[in-house]
C-alpha cells in the first residue's frame, strides 16, 4: 500500500515544478488549458481568473520541453478585453513560476497537498489575461459543456442581484465559488450546508 503510493507520487524530472525557484522565476509557458476557467470579481473593477494548464514548453533562459500541470492565476483590469482562455485552448503566457505554499502551522491548510493530489505541483502568477496569446481554440465536447455552464452562469448574474445569483448558480450548476464568505458562514450556522 504505502510503497505503491510513494512510487505513484514521484514527480518526473521534466515536470514544470522542477524549474520553480530558478533565476528570478520569470517564465514563458506554452500549454493547454486543462480545466474550466474560474473567474471572480475583485476590488477596483478587476476580475481574477484561475485555471489548470497542462504545460508543454517552458522558457527560462532557454526553451525546454516540460510536462505536468500548473495552476495559473491572472487578473483583468476593468479596461481590458474579457476573452479568457477556455478548456482545450493552446496558450502562451508569461509570469512568475513558484511552488504552492505548504502547511505553515500544525493545524493549517495544506494547499500544496491539495494541489498535489490533483496532479498539480506548480503555480504560475501570470501577466494580465488580456495579454495572453491564444494559439488555438479547443473544440472538445467537455469544452463546449464548460462554455454552456459559463453562459448560464453569466445569464443568471445578469438578471439577478449578486447574492441571489451566487446561490442559484451553486444550486443549479454546483459552482459555489461566487458565494460570499459571510453568506457561506450563515448557511453553515443555519445547518443548510448540504443544500448549497
From the structure above, extract its key features.
alpha+beta, 5 helices, disordered N terminus, five-stranded mixed β-barrel, 196 residues, single chain
Q: Explain this structure to me?
A:
The chain has 196 residues and is an alpha+beta fold. The protein is built from 5 helices and 8 strands. It has helices spanning 2-8, 111-117, 141-159, 162-173, 181-189; strands at residues 26-33, 38-42, 46-59, 63-65, 69-76, 90-98, 120-126, 133-136. It has a 5-stranded mixed barrel. Strand 3 (46-59) and strand 4 (63-65) form a beta hairpin. Helix 3 packs antiparallel against helix 4. The two termini are 36 Å apart.
Fold blueprint:
Blueprint: H1 2-8, E1 26-33, E2 38-42, E3 46-59, E4 63-65, E5 69-76, E6 90-98, H2 111-117, E7 120-126, E8 133-136, H3 141-159, H4 162-173, H5 181-189
Parallel strand pairs: 5-7
Antiparallel strand pairs: 1-3, 1-6, 2-3, 3-4, 3-5, 6-7, 6-8
Helix pairs in contact: 3-4
Amino acid at each position: 500500500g504505502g510503497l505503491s503510493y510513494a512510487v505513484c507520487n514521484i514527480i518526473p524530472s521534466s515536470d514544470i515544478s522542477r524549474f520553480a525557484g530558478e533565476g528570478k522565476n520569470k517564465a514563458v509557458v506554452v500549454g493547454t488549458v486543462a480545466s474550466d476557467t474560474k473567474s471572480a470579481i475583485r476590488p477596483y473593477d478587476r476580475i481574477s481568473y484561475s485555471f489548470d494548464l497542462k504545460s508543454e514548453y517552458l522558457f527560462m533562459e532557454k526553451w525546454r520541453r516540460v510536462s505536468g500541470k500548473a495552476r495559473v492565476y491572472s487578473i483583468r483590469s476593468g479596461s481590458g478585453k474579457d476573452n479568457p482562455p477556455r478548456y482545450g485552448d493552446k496558450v502562451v503566457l508569461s509570469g512568475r513560476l513558484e511552488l504552492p505554499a505548504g502547511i505553515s502551522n500544525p493545524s493549517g491548510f495544506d494547499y500544496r497537498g491539495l494541489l498535489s493530489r490533483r496532479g498539480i505541483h506548480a503555480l504560475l502568477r501570470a501577466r494580465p489575461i488580456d495579454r495572453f496569446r491564444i494559439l488555438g481554440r479547443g473544440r472538445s465536447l467537455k469544452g463546449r459543456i464548460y462554455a454552456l455552464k459559463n453562459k448560464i452562469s453569466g445569464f443568471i448574474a445578469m438578471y439577478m442581484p449578486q447574492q441571489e445569483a451566487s446561490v442559484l448558480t451553486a444550486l443549479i450548476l454546483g459552482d459555489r465559488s461566487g458565494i460570499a464568505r459571510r453568506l457561506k458562514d450563515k448557511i453553515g450556522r443555519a445547518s443548510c450546508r448540504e443544500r448549497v
